[in-house]
Structures are given as C-alpha cells and as structure tokens.
Amino acid sequence: MKKAVILYSGGKDSHFALYTALKKGYSVPFLINLEPIPHSKGYVYFNNPYSKKIIELHSKLMNIEILYFKMDERKYFVFKNDVSAFISELVGWVEGKIGDFTFFFTWDKDDIKSEPNHKKQYRLITAFFNKTNRKYLFPFIDKSFKDLTKSYSKAGIKPICVGISKDKNKFKSFLGRTMDLKFIDDMEKENKKLKPRFRITKPDIQSLVIESPLFNGKKITPVSFKNITSKENLFIKTDRYKIY
Question: What are the backbone angles phi and psi of residue 176, rounded to the nearest 5°?
Fold first, then answer.
C-alpha cells in the first residue's frame, strides 16, 4: 500500500492533511512532530506554545504512532534560512525508517498569498522534490482558508483557536472559540472595522483539534487553559482536559 507522511502539530491543517491522506487510500505508518528543544522554545520556533501531551493524546486516540524530529536552534536556523537543506535532512531521516512514501504538505492558497517567504519556500520545496524525483502533494494549494473550513467542518473535524497575534487585541475574544464558518464571518466583520495594516491574516491564527472522526468516537473537552503571551502573540494552552 502507498504510504504518506505528514508533519503533525495537532492543529486543523495537519489534522485535515492526515484525514485527506487516509481518505485517498494512503497508509500512514507514523506522524512526524517537529519537537522544539527545549519545549519552552515552542512559541519562539513555531509561533505556537508546544504541548507534547496533547500531540501524544491525538496519537493515542487515533492509534497512529508519532515520531519526533528534534529541533534545536541550529536546525531551526536551517529551516528558516535554507528550507531545501532542512527538507533534505528530514526526508532522508524518514526514508531511513520506511523507504518510499509521499510527503503531504498542509499549505493552502492563502498561505502562499499572505506571506512572501511562504511563496519562496513553496518554490524551493517543490523544486527539491521534483529534482530528486521524490513524491509529494500539496492537497490544499488551490483552496482558500474558508474553503478548507467548510471541508473540515463537513468532515466532522472541530478545531478551536488557541493563538492569535498580540497586536490584534481586538481579536482576543476569539481565543478558545470553535473555528467554523461563523468564526470566519465574525472575524471578517471585525477586520472591516480596522485599518488594513491591523487586519488579521491566516498565519496569525493557531488551532487545536478537539473532535474528529479519527478519534474513534472520543472527543477532547478542555477544562481550563493557561494564558501565554509571547512578544507578538496571545495564546491559550490546554492546562486540563477530559476525554469523553
């Protein structure tokens, strides 16, 4: 059976990429998590507080093993400044474990449009895979953030917003909310009240999946959150939760 691998964070994009791969008939022998070392560097490296216990909970609920690609500051520097070298090292690491596979990437159309560096990285990544004749898919590259929201909502996947840009304090109330079409509509209404330079864009939002058909009938119910503030962002990190 053809195999797929996905960089998995527990957020809506990586979770929906996993769901999509399985629906397309791929087996997923394991998931890959980029683990910041130390964990306290998570929100510095990846714009999101690192929560290994939640990622491991997802792995347990889905019965899919998760492997950790440890990211110290050197590797993160390579990731940010020479993505081809980083992907080459990562792909070699995966090939050493399972041989042939297809790499699923999670970017959508709005990712490419919203950040010039994303567009550059997209070109470099596709060039690397094409040059080395390795298999890859960007299954969402022609879809917008709103399109994807419709798709994962229809599939029964429920993420909540756990991070938002700090300089957009008007959006603080969106933390902890379900990310559905009403979430997007309400955000668009708030955006229209602001000057263009203060408007929120997709990369400013981080998410956590709490319900999914991949969770085998279980769902995660957050009981309490811990507030975390970085230099640029506001976050909530799941402090306690229940499984039903």
Answer: 90, -10
Number of domains in the chain: 1
Q: How far apart are CA 236 and CA 175, in angstroms?
A: 7
CB contact at 8 A, 71 and 36: yes
CA dihedral 218, 221, 222, 223 (to 10 degrees): -130
Nearest of 213, 240, 171, 239 to residue 62 by alpha carbon: 213
For 232, the domain range is: 4-243
Q: Which residues of the chain have pLDDT under 50?
A: none
- From the number of C-beta atoms within 10 Å of its C-beta (0-12, 13-18, 19+), residue 21 rates as buried
CB 31 within 8 A of CB 65: yes
- Residue 70: give its domain's CATH number: 3.40.50
